[in-house]
Specification:
The chain is mainly beta. The chain has a single domain, classed as Jelly Rolls (Sandwich). The protein has one helix and eight strands, in the order βββαβββββ. The strands form two sheets. A four-stranded antiparallel sheet has the order 1-6-3-4. It comes from Ferirhizobium litorale. InterPro entries: DUF1883 (IPR015073), DUF1883-like_sf (IPR036488). Pfam families: DUF1883. This is DUF1883 domain-containing protein.
């Protein structure tokens, strides 16, 4: 099944406890979507999905994991021109953890 019609970077954050803070650094305005595994699957299938985040106009931004579980972060350019470079690191639970884009 084809995914979204726009390019995106996907970070598989794995299992994280509630209250963990992640910091996302961006090189340009982009959409940032923090989703649980179910909503990430819906995102990939271009179905209606829920997420934490939105349009990030400044960098870095910080998001907090609302509940324990398997989390995914997507950085995309839907509605924006150009490409944004991104990086993600955990700053709440394990400050040394850095995530690589999975896609």
């Amino acid at each position: 099944m084809p995914g979204p019609a726009f390019r995106f970077s996907h970070y598989d954050l794995k299992e994280l406890p509630a209250g963990t803070t992640i910091e996302i650094s961006l090189s340009a305005i982009a959409n940032v979507r923090l989703m649980n595994a179910d909503h990430f699957q819906r995102f990939k299938e271009t179905l209606k999905h829920k997420f934490i985040g939105g349009v990030a106009k400044k960098s870095p931004i910080r998001l907090t994991i609302p509940e324990a579980g398997h989390w995914h972060l997507v950085v995309d350019m839907e509605g924006h021109s150009g490409v944004a470079e991104s990086s993600v690191k955990m700053i709440g639970a394990a400050p040394s953890a850095r995530f690589q884009a999975a896609s």
